[in-house]
Amino acid sequence: MPDSLVLRNVSAGYGETVVLDGISLRLPELGTVSILGRNGVGKTTLLASVLGHTTLHAGDIMFAGQTLNGLRSFRRARLGIGYVPQEREIFPSLDVEENLTVAARGPRTGGWNVDRVYALFPRLAERRRSMGNQLSGGEQQMLAVGRALMLNPSLLLLDEPLEGLAPVMVDRLLEALNRLRSEAGLAMVLVEQHVRLALEFSARAVILDRGKVVYDDASGPLLDDPQRVVALIGVGR
Prior knowledge:
The structure is a single chain. This protein is α/β, with parallel strands linked by helices. It has helices spanning 43-51, 73-79, 96-101, 114-120, 122-126, 137-149, 167-183, 195-201, 220-223, 226-233, and strands spanning 3-14, 17-28, 32-36, 55-63, 66-67, 81-84, 155-159, 187-191, 204-209, 212-218. The chain folds into 2 domains: 1-80 and 155-237, Rossmann fold (3-Layer(aba) Sandwich); 87-153, no CATH class. It has 10 helices and 10 strands.
């Protein structure tokens, strides 16, 4: 199976500041990986580097066989990279349906449209005429995922989508993400602080510490060895 995303010895950061130091990873087409680590170790910066929001000091970033080096962010999105930011960034003065349609892009065969997003998130269908600032945190997170899908991506980057949500909303969102993983023909990169949920979600995990990869392997051994998780990440959840 060909690779969806490849990072080769990537060093990147903000201006002259280097946050990622020699990062290499491969994500196969339709693959799913969870990026784990403490706050400040470079998880969000890794996603930002794929999106073109950082300074690339060294290395190569490839997507679907094409180099992304030097490519502007909107062109990366057009290639098929969708992004769900940690802050959600919902348009508060647009209703749910307008938030979705403003991001719509010509679909792939069997691609995403409003009706398909509503089928994935029935709650959004119920709230379709509610303004963005009238939604709960969980509803906004669903909308952020739905909006990213409206770009009809082949790679979906999710930055801590479960953070700050009520348990019932965590369950609903995980159910939707599991459906995407199994049915939607997407590669997915999940950055998450909820370690056990992330390890259960993805068959593979990458752990960062101080901008370097300290683990890149199957999730199963970490699920079976919580002490190793504590040693690698410094937290146990």
